[in-house]
Known about the structure:
Elements: H1 2-15, H2 20-52, H3 57-68, H4 71-82, H5 86-111, E1 114-115, H6 119-141, E2 143-144, H7 146-170, H8 188-220, H9 224-236, H10 238-249, H11 253-278, E3 281-282, H12 285-309, E4 311-312, H13 314-333
Antiparallel strand pairs: 1-4, 2-3
Helix pairs in contact: 1-8, 2-3, 2-8, 3-7, 4-5, 4-8, 4-11, 5-9, 5-10, 5-11, 5-12, 5-13, 6-11, 6-12, 7-11, 8-9, 10-11
GO cellular component, one term: plasma membrane
Keywords: Membrane, Transmembrane, Transmembrane helix
Subcellular location: Membrane
Amino acid sequence: MTGGLGMDVIVNFIAAYIDAAWLDYVLIIGGLGLLFVGGESLIRGAVSLALNLRLSRLVIGLTVVGMGTSAPELMVSVQSALKGSPDLAVGNVVGSNIANILLIMGVGALLSPMAANGLGLKRDALIMFAVTVGLLWLGLQGSITRDHGWIMLALLAAYLVGVYIWEKVITGKDTAPAETSTERAGSPLVALVWVALGLLMLVSGADALVRGAENVARGFGISEAVIGLTLVAVGTSLPELTVTIIAAFRRQGEVSLGNLIGSNIFNILGILGVTACITPLRIAPQMAQIDMPVALGVAALVLLIILLAQKVGRLSGLLFLGLYAAYMTWLFVGPQSLT
């Protein structure tokens, strides 16, 4: 509650200096900025803490970095659900998963083709497809209950443990403590400050973005689900976009693919799981009948490309971007765009 009260004070302060017509857009842009900077701060501090605790690079990658890039989606979905906007909460996750593949993976593939011949990548693509099937099943039931949320979190924990065992025992990858890394651990106190600042910015940014998005949706008569599937989803996917572009320029396409697929798994099992544990989520028929099947189709397309072509090339990137443009157009011109 104190976070909401603090945001009220900030909103009133901003409103005193700008035209009321622009206030919601300032909240949206400011919220996106805080989410991006806050996510970076959280990851920096958490990685530094993990290095101080002598955790392995593998564990850091699986937990800190992978989940850290999904922190904006988590904060926005939780805030939306608590404010009584389940369409925005669910739309944010479904839209982020679609954007991660069609938009962000499409951009990355255009910049530099992505190799996809690792067994671990094929494993995760199959898991992403399976959990998306599960999400569609829940959507068709009409809700995600607290019991569903706990099951999803248990599945996420099992996935992380399974990946760790796979990497350490089956493939024999290095899981030695990360102090041998070129990254320096830094001061634990400074790391804690980075984490605290990151969390503060994420909470504030999510609150601002949700407020602004809700008001814009109401003002234009656009449904909250469409706002969640588009503006909010793309905005909260900025960390994944950053990682993908950096990986593309470094010719580390497989790293980018792993990050995007892992993020989609965490979005479904982790973000919706946590959000549902806090407050059950109602799934709108439109979301279950149209948008979730689109997310499943996208997951199936990526799985087929990885299994058959074993790379995501520029042609696939163009296909992804074309499909995303078509999906965005349909969202805004179709009858589902209206409240």
